[in-house]
């Protein structure tokens, strides 16, 4: 009898433990939905701001995602982490996604088309230089393989010049502007918040070329590998929902949202509104509208042709297969 009672007690304890484990794997308390752990990579680019807001404001958690956002300093670091499956989602430039697919045989999909940069990506220099032509023979700093690289090459092409007309100095986007004001280079190609920080430190610094001069060239997307999306079919729609809710939250709580983005990107809340004027964020409806109208594929095709012209793609890719936002 004692053995029978003991067995019953043991079984009850096991049942309670399993029930506890089941409960702990759920999110939202009353939602009853199992949560999923996700590692997402970002850099200090303000275009990724809504993800930081979604994290701090509990939007990920509310939608059943236990998020771990990892901040990387350089494109090469986040690209390597994504390729080696250390993160499931990476926020990268559209041209980077194309190069990963064409050059590294990564079967990836863009699940959120995040933003388009206008003045938030730019080539900056001292006031004595008024045009790209005036910088011939000078040192230009930027991070290799990044949006800065793409932007500079497009600027050179637009001016009818050659890459051989300049002395390129590769360094991290966060360091390029500092090299400019310390007179180690004559110009820098970088992005916000680094641009505003440098201009604030040296009033003689100004933009001579930006994403606004080549509309649609600089854009970003959140990507995941196709096999991961196949194994987790509900994650894509959930992330898209989180993105939209984060944009709405930012509109409804601008001070709080700006504070979160400023802290994550290393900028000040005073500078942020001006920086945000140079970035276009896309809601899910806008993304779908651009996809249905063909405008999204048109913009991506333009980027692809530029990369092909620069011989940066090892094989042909179909831009329609790059995005999966429907």
UniProtKB/TrEMBL annotation:
Keywords assigned: Signal
Keyword Signal: yes
InterPro entries given in the database record: SsuA/THI5
Every SsuA/THI5-like domain range: 50-256
Main location: periplasm
Compartments, as annotated in UniProt: Periplasm
Family: Belongs to the bacterial solute-binding protein SsuA/TauA family.
PANTHER family in alphabetical order: ALIPHATIC SULFONATES-BINDING PROTEIN-RELATED, TAURINE-BINDING PERIPLASMIC PROTEIN
Record's protein name: ABC transporter substrate-binding protein
């Amino acid at each position: 009898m004692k053995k029978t009672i003991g067995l019953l007690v043991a079984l009850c304890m096991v049942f309670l433990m399993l029930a506890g484990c089941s409960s702990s794997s759920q999110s939202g308390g009353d939602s009853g939905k199992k949560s999923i752990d996700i590692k997402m990579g970002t850099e200090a680019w303000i275009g990724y701001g809504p993800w930081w807001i979604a994290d701090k404001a509990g939007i990920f958690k509310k939608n059943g995602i236990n998020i771990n956002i990892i901040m990387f300093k350089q494109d090469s670091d986040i690209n390597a982490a994504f390729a080696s499956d250390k993160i499931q989602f990476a926020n990268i430039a559209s041209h980077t996604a194309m190069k990963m697919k064409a050059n590294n045989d990564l079967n990836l999909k863009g699940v959120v088309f995040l933003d388009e940069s206008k003045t938030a990506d730019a080539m900056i220099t001292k006031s004595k230089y008024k045009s790209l032509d005036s910088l011939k023979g000078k040192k230009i700093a930027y991070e290799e393989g990044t949006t800065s690289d793409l932007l500079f090459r497009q600027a050179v092409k637009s001016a009818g010049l050659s890459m051989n007309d300049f002395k390129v100095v590769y360094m991290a986007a966060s360091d390029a502007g500092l090299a400019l004001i310390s007179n180690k280079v004559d110009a820098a190609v970088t992005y916000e918040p680094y641009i505003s920080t440098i201009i604030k430190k040296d009033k003689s610094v100004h933009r001579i070329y930006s994403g606004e001069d080549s509309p649609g060239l600089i854009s970003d997307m959140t990507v995941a590998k196709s096999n991961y999306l196949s194994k987790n079919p509900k994650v894509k729609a959930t992330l898209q929902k989180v993105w939209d809710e984060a944009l709405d939250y930012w509109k409804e709580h601008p001070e709080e949202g700006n504070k979160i983005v400023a802290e994550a990107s290393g900028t000040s809340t005073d500078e942020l509104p001006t920086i945000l004027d140079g970035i276009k964020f896309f809601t899910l409806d806008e993304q779908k509208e651009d996809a249905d109208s063909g405008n999204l594929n048109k913009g991506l095709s333009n980027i692809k042709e530029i990369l092909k012209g620069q011989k940066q793609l090892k094989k042909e890719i179909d831009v329609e297969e790059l995005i999966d936002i429907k």
